[in-house]
Task: structure prediction
Amino acid sequence: MSKLTDISYVKGILAKHGFTFSKALGQNFLINPSVCPKMAEMCGCNENVGVIEIGPGAGVLTSELAKTAYKVIAVELDKRLLPVLAETLSEHDNVKVINGDVMKLNLKELIQEEFNGGEVVICANLPYYITSPVIMRILEERLPINSLTVMVQKEAAERICATPGTRQSGAISAAVHYYSEPEMLFKVSAGSFLPAPKVDSEVIKLNILKNPPIRVTDEKKFFRVVKAAFMQRRKTAANSLSAGLGMPKAEINALLEKSGIKPSARAEELTMQDFAEIADSISN
Result:
């Protein structure tokens, strides 16, 4: 068992460096000894694969990744954790910690500089408040990675992985399925963290696709349609699309009927192909 999952040891190191948890940064450190080895094993890293970790915290997952991957780049936003990580990761010479914001870093440049065209995966225990923005940024930039393995709030995981056309699906579900093949890996209870959050988590893996599963004429228009359709979930897709796209409802109804979609359908009932057909039939 890693000493980094020993509560008294972790608390001692954090106290030594004067660290206190930040609610604003959504900091919850893993202390369940079984979680990180499973994440490291299932994320796809090995001696020939490099890893980018987002938000290493006290370094418990980082340490497990370093045992398998040939190189780990850990991106940490909180400067206060740098001395903590310098101590907890001192035995690993294949880890580099970068102090920075993953939403602002040039990730393509980072991957090229650090891994020089080698295989790369991303692995992270993401703060709940930034889950969707981070996932969408990584997917939309089409980074040269094999997969993205993240631990997120259980409810978010279900929404992210939901198949478009099913009840739990949302705009992010369509985007995730456009760029990747998602899978739910395993659940993580709230008690696995210090401090314990109020909800359980789930580890998911997004296997990056070389080509989208559907053909669209204009990707920007496709995603504009998807976002508009889910803007008002309680309303029909026709009403949401009309409001979100600024088009007359009669025109939207005509487009839906042309695509074989009932005007009374809701956004979560529409498949990826439905969204593609609607987008392709819009002239502007």
